[in-house]
């Protein structure tokens, strides 16, 4: 079970959060990310609503869908992810749907 509020810090490393198969009892999830010289990937369900806000300094913050699967339309049951990012020389990515490895394995 995932928490409703999560603070993520990454310094000189990599963090991967995968919510695609998580049991989430909350409709809204707040994630605060601080990344310095790091890569952070947050994978959300394909039908998730993403509220992404941040200010990268010599880095990037991106959101995109799965390459092979179209993003599913949001429904009344879709989870809302409020993601706030501070990135310095870091890359933060929000991806939708399961990873390619999970798709190949049939997850």
Describe the structure.
The chain is mainly β. It has one domain. Helices cover 5% and strands 52% of the residues. It is built from one helix and eight strands. A four-stranded parallel beta sheet has the order 1-3-7-5, with no helix packed on it. Strands 2-4-8-6 form a four-stranded parallel beta sheet, with no helix packed on it. The mean pLDDT is 87.
Task: Compute the number of strand runs.
Answer: 8
Mean pLDDT level: 87
Helix content: under 10%
The neighbouring-strand order within the major sheet is 1-3-7-5
Number of helices: 1
Weakly predicted, low-confidence segments: none
Please describe the biggest sheet, giving its number of strands, its sense, and whether it closes into a barrel: 4 strands, parallel
Amount of beta strand = over 45%
The domain count comes to 1
What structural category do the secondary elements indicate?
mainly beta
The radius of gyration computed from the alpha-carbon positions, rounded to a whole number of angstroms, is 13 Å
User: In one word, what is the shape?
Assistant: globular
| Termini gap | 18 Å
In sequence order, what are the helices and strands, one letter per element? EEEEEEEEH
SSE blueprint:
Elements (H helix, E strand, L loop, with lengths): L4 E7 L2 E5 L9 E9 L2 E6 L4 E9 L2 E5 L15 E9 L2 E6 L3 H5 L3
Parallel strand pairs: 1-3, 2-4, 3-7, 4-8, 5-7, 6-8
Salient structural properties:
four-stranded parallel sheet, 1 helix, 107 residues
Brief characterization of the structure:
This protein is mostly beta strands and 107 residues long.
């Amino acid at each position: 079970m995932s928490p409703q509020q999560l603070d993520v810090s990454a310094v000189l490393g990599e963090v991967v959060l995968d919510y695609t198969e998580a049991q989430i009892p909350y409709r809204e999830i707040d994630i605060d990310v601080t990344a310095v010289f790091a890569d952070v990937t947050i994978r959300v369900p394909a039908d998730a609503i993403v509220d992404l806000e941040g200010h990268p300094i010599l880095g990037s913050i991106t959101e995109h869908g799965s390459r092979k699967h179209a993003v599913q339309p949001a429904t009344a049951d879709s989870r809302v992810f409020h993601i706030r990012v501070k990135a310095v020389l870091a890359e933060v990515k929000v991806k939708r749907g399961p990873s390619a490895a999970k798709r190949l394995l049939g997850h």
